[in-house]
Each structure stands twice: as structure tokens, then as C-alpha cells.
Specification:
CATH topology of the largest domain: Rossmann fold
Shape: globular
CATH architecture of the largest domain: 3-Layer(aba) Sandwich
Number of domains: 2
Structural class: alpha/beta
Number of helices: 9
Strand content: 5-15%
Radius of gyration: 18 Å
Helix content: 40-55%
Order of helices and strands: EHHEHEHEHHHHH
Number of strands: 4
CATH class of the largest domain: Alpha Beta
Length: 214
Amino acid sequence: MNQDATVSDLVVLTADKNMRFMLEGLLSRPKALSIRPVIAVFYIHPERDPGCLLRADAFLRPFVNQFHHAIVMFDREGCGKQKKSRQELEEEVLSNLSLSGWGDRATAIVIDPELENWVFSDSPEVDAVIGWAANTPPLRSWLEEKNFLTPGQIKPLHPKEAMESALRHVRMARSSSIYKQLAEQVGLGRCTDQAFLKLKDVLQSWFPVLEDKK
């Protein structure tokens, strides 16, 4: 790549607006991610998860010489190839991106089963952001009562259904801004999802903290 042609650090292609807002919120916290501040440009694939899986390389090919790095992110649930593992799907996308000119400058993040898996942790900020703080019992206890969680389980088996049910219970409209607030406020060390941990590792390798020059 001609580095002189690069106009930004990172281009991000997501399957939907919720993912975009989640990543925008995360990247607004470089210190929490242990990275330097990153300038990112976001796009949403019009074909959502299947589009990100099958045609991310074509979508991002025009940007090869305009960005240092690229991220493609989508859900395993609904991508059209759910029989494949998260890692197999990521490798498929990564192979296509590499052949389209990105080489080793791009990565794929596939969330299994879906984005809402990043929402649920034992952080009290989750209750506050989704409007549950004044409700009883606490959110996690309620999720257990409704059989979304088993005792000791951190994340629901069906996280999107669990989140939608909780929002209906408190009469809060589901919106992308909720995902951004969660990303901005919830402690990042509490999320144990493998795709999230991969994202943090990739960002730290691409955008290490700059040393102070004194």
C-alpha cells in the first residue's frame, strides 16, 4: 500500500446500525482499550450479515489505498452459514479480503451468536443503560426467572431475545443509541466474549499506545 495515499486509520464495515454504534462507542474509549486514539470511518453493508460474509471484499476494495486497516463485523446468527464456526467464517472473509488487496491489514470479527452477546455482563451499568436500575428484582435475577439465564451463567443462550424482552418489560424502545451508551459506559474488562477479546487484541496490535516524548 502507498502510505502517502492513506487518509485515515481504519475503515469499518458492519452488518447493521447497532454494530456501528457499538464500535463507535468502544473506539471513543481508547484508554479503556489500551490503544491510541483512532480515526475511523464506518459503513453498513446493505445486505447485512450475509453481505458482510460474502461481499465484504468487493465493498472494501475501493478503500485499499485510503486506510491503514479494515474491520468487517457481523453476527454468526443470520449470516446464512450458521453451520460453520465463528472462526471458519472469519477465515473465509479474511481470505477474500487478503486477495482483494488488504493483505494482512484487515480482520473479520464474527459474533456468536449475535451482537447482544456483548451486552450482558455482571456490570451494574448494564441495568442503568437499559432502564432497569429502579426495577426489582435486579436484571440478572429477572433473566433467571424468565429462563433466559441459568444460575451462574454470565450470558443468555439467546441474547437478542433476552435483551428485547427486558426492554419491553421496562417499556424502553430498542434503539442503536442504547448500544453506543453500553459501549461508552460498561467496564470493558467484564466482557468475556471471544469475538470481543479478539477485537481488543487486534486494535492493540494495530494502534498501540504512543509513548510520551519528553
